[in-house]
Specification:
alpha/beta; five-stranded parallel β-sheet; three-stranded parallel β-sheet; 15 helices; globular; binds beta-L-rhamnopyranose; binds manganese (II) ion
Length: about 400
């Protein structure tokens, strides 16, 4: 049983916690081996925002949606007004804007790191357009992920590519409005398998620093080597004032994009704990964009996103329950077991009753998943979208 004090701590934590969901989590996607089509999946930006609106309506903690420019703004800047009015209709707002310089044929050998200056220019022009789009949608963050890299030793000049990236990021930063930020994401593998141009947090940090004062690092939890200590990276970035945001997802092997907390909930808790500790010690709120980067081809998409939001809230609430004063004392006195137990006590606390009471106090259903299922939204979406989705089945063979 939670004490009244613990319940109040959880409520306060949840009041300050929102998590952004990705538009690409609502469309039919697959693996490189094939695609299993869901009849109710979203087929355009209207339906993606409508689905995202459902997640926010039933959880009350997902007010914004990350958007991918090529997928969600079919006419580029001309689409801004339509996206804005759809978002308003469905009760959400545009979140981080994601350029796409990894999909078009010209990017076969890279974008900002391409040896061909014309292709580097084309990539930069698209990214600058995205900064304008972000300004148009009132989005603070432009979120950059690059597929750039090489597949075989000796095939690319790593230092030249690094410099081309720095040049491109500096120009992009120069284009930002004063209240906008640039988030630099790293990933050590895929689609390039020998080297990627921004492979880890150290490289992303150097790139962000070189870009300018409003660039920060984006940590995608799936983009690390096995066994890497992600919460230490978080603590270091916090101490350098360079942590801009997260793409949360769980992984068992590589960039698996599994539901947050499904494989290792303690990992997510430890990340939230480092943030809570930083905020408690410094007395200031860490300015972090919490985002989900998951896309599922087997679980029902809206239900999965609701499940995701609930797990994120639960782990965030548990981290808020760590007795930080006691922990600081135990750390100082090197009372190892006491310090460790302090974390584990909070992690093992069942916060679900406090989540339910928070929901009813905030006017959202106590059981978001069950309430969403009862609404009949999925069945209606399947009827309406079914035929269009059937046509999208693809084989990669
Ligand atoms: C990447 C990375 C990016 C996401 C793309 C689609 O692996 O996580 O954040 O935008 O996938
Ligand atoms: Mn990501
Ligand atoms: Mn990824």
């Amino acid at each position: 049983m939670l004490t009244t004090r613990q319940e109040a701590i959880v409520h306060k934590a949840l009041d300050s916690f929102a998590i952004e969901i990705p538009s690409w989590g609502f469309a039919n996607t697959g693996t490189r081996f094939g695609k299993f089509v869901q009849e109710a999946a979203a087929t355009n930006i209207d339906e993606k925002l409508s689905d995202a609106g459902q997640v926010n309506r039933f959880t009350g903690c997902c007010p914004s949606v990350a958007l991918h420019v090529l997928w969600d703004f079919p006419s580029g800047k001309e689409s801004i007004a339509e996206v804005m009015s759809l978002a308003a209709r469905y009760g959400v707002r545009a979140g981080a804007i994601n350029p796409n310089v990894f999909q078009d044929q010209e990017y076969k050998h890279g974008s900002l790191g391409n040896p061909d200056p014309l292709i580097r220019q084309a990539a930069l022009a698209h990214i600058l357009d995205c900064v304008d789009i972000a300004r148009g949608t009132g989005s603070r963050d432009v979120s950059l992920w690059f597929g750039d890299g090489s597949n075989f030793p000796g095939t690319a000049n790593i230092r030249h590519r690094k410099q081309w990236f720095i040049d491109g990021l500096k120009e992009t930063h120069g284009h930002l409005a004063p209240d906008q930020r640039l988030l630099v994401e790293y990933k050590p593998f895929e689609p390039a398998f020998y080297h990627t141009d921004i492979a880890d947090w150290g490289m992303a940090l150097l790139m962000a620093r070189a870009a300018g004062p409003r660039a920060r690092v984006l940590v995608d939890t799936g983009h690390h080597y096995q066994g890497q200590n992600i919460e230490q990276i978080v603590a270091w970035l916090l101490s350098e004032d360079m942590l801009g945001g997260f793409h949360f997802n769980d992984r068992r092997y590589a960039d698996d994009d599994l539901t947050i907390g499904s494989i290792d909930p303690y990992q997510v808790f430890r990340i939230f704990h480092e943030i809570a500790l930083f905020e408690w010690e410094t007395g200031r709120r860490a300015d972090i964009a919490y985002m989900i980067d998951q896309s599922h081809n087997l679980k029902e998409k809206i239900e999965e996103m609701i499940q995701t939001a609930m797990v994120a809230q639960e782990l965030y609430a548990k981290a808020a329950l760590v007795d930080l004063e006691a922990l600081a004392r135990f750390q100082k006195q090197c009372r190892l077991i006491d310090a460790e137990e302090c974390l584990k006590d909070a992690f093992s606390t069942d916060v679900r009753p406090a989540l339910r009471s928070w929901r009813s106090a905030r006017g959202v259903p106590e059981e978001p998943l069950a309430a969403f299922r009862e609404s009949g939204y999925i069945e209606a979406a399947a009827r309406e979208r079914g035929t269009r989705n059937k046509g999208s089945a693809a084989s990669y063979a």
